[in-house]
Design brief:
This is YpoC-like domain-containing protein. It comes from [Anoxybacillus] calidus. By secondary structure, this protein is an all-alpha fold. It is built from seven helices and no strands. The protein starts with about 30 loop residues before the first helix and ends with a helix. The chain has one domain.
Amino acid sequence: MRVPNEFVHPLFYREGETIETTELAPFPLMMKKFYFYYDILACKEFVENEPWKDIGQSIPAVLQLWKEKREQLDILFQNRDRKAAREPMTRAISYFMACLYWLNGTRVKGIANWEREVNTLRIKPMNCVERLQFIFAKCDLYHSFIQLGELFNELTKLYYKNLAISKKGLSHY
C-alpha cells in the first residue's frame, strides 16, 4: 500500500513509499516495522484493530515497545553513536505520537502538519509542541532522547489519570 501524503515527513516516509499490509502479526508488532502502521491502514481501509478505541490495551502495549527501545537507545547514546541512534529515535517518536493521539481517542491522521494537529489535542504534556519541535529537528542528540523520555513519563501519567477518571465516571452508572 502506498503511504498517504499526510504521512510523508523527512523522519518517517518519503513520497511514493509503500508499506506491506498482507503480513499478519499480533498488535502492536507491526509498529516495530512500519511507522504509524495502524493509523495508515485506517486511512486506506477498514481495520479490525483500532487501537485508539481500546487505549486500555493499546497504550500499555506501545509503552512496552518504548521501554524496549529506550534500553537500546541508552546503550547507543552511552557509546556516543548518534548515527545508529537515529532510526531507533525515529521509531520511538512514532510510538509517542501514536500514544498521544490514541490517548485523545483518535488515530494519527497525518504527520506532515503534526504541530497544528497536536495543538488541537486536549490531553497532552505541557509545552508538548515546542518540546517535540526540538526532538524532530535533532532526533539524534542525547538531549532529544532525554526530552522524549520525559514526554513519555508525562504521557504515561496522563494516561493513568485519564483511566482513573473514566473508571470513576463509570462507577456512577
